[in-house]
Specification:
The protein folds into two domains: about 1-95, Rna Polymerase Sigma Factor, Chain: A (Orthogonal Bundle); about 110-185, Arc Repressor Mutant, subunit A (Orthogonal Bundle), CATH 1.10.10. It has helices spanning about 5-15, 20-40, 45-60, 70-90, 110-125, 130-140, 145-150, 155-185. Helices cover about 75% and strands about 0% of the residues. By secondary structure, it is an all-alpha fold.
């Protein structure tokens, strides 16, 4: 069946009444989108756990969804909160990288790849929400520019310009953070 706003509304209503099959259909529809977004925001080793926590939160709180915004907007607020919770918890812990268990090809530098990923995530978190959102919509969710424009309620040219500016800002943050790491090493 084609996913339409009407179909989604029926599924949400059924899920709110405890229909697990309806919730499963919602889960299946949004899993890849949420997973991609989480991939862009947290270390790879934690993506599955954070994604699982998000859908547990959705299952527990779907009854509170009242339709004041689109379901996807409501869902992405939960994503944002769970990612923030992840980093709050993480600040209290010290992460250690076990080089012996790292999955890599001989000759590659798995620590450099991990460092690049962490640098990108740090840069994304440092951007204003509007810039981070347009990058995630375009790259993490893979939306075409017209869909990004529609989602943000702006014209196509404005979406392209905002994306370009957001990418440039992200590059600037990466360079800034990379310089800090290089200088302090």
């Amino acid at each position: 069946m084609t996913w339409t706003p009407e179909h989604e509304a029926k599924l949400i209503e059924a899920a709110q009444q405890g229909n697990q099959a309806a919730f499963g259909e919602i889960y299946d529809h949004y899993l890849t989108k949420v997973y991609r977004r989480v991939c862009a925001l947290v270390p790879e080793s934690d993506v599955e756990d954070v994604t699982q926590e998000i859908f547990i939160s959705v299952a527990r709180s779907i009854g509170s969804f009242r339709g004041g915004s689109s379901f996807s907007t409501w869902l992405y607020r939960i994503v944002k909160r769970r990612v923030a919770d992840f980093y709050r918890k993480r600040e209290r812990q010290v992460e250690q990288v076990d080089i012996e268990k790292a999955d890599h090809t001989p000759g590659e530098n798995p620590l450099r790849d991990a460092a690049d990923q962490l640098l990108l995530q740090q840069a994304l978190r440092a951007l204003p929400e509007s810039q981070r959102e347009i990058i995630l919509l375009r790259l993490a969710e893979g939306l075409p520019f017209q869909d990004v424009a529609d989602r943000l309620g702006i014209k196509l040219g404005a979406a392209k310009l905002r994306f370009y500016r957001a990418i440039e800002a992200c590059k600037g943050k990466i360079a800034e953070f990379d310089a800090e790491v290089t200088f302090s090493s």
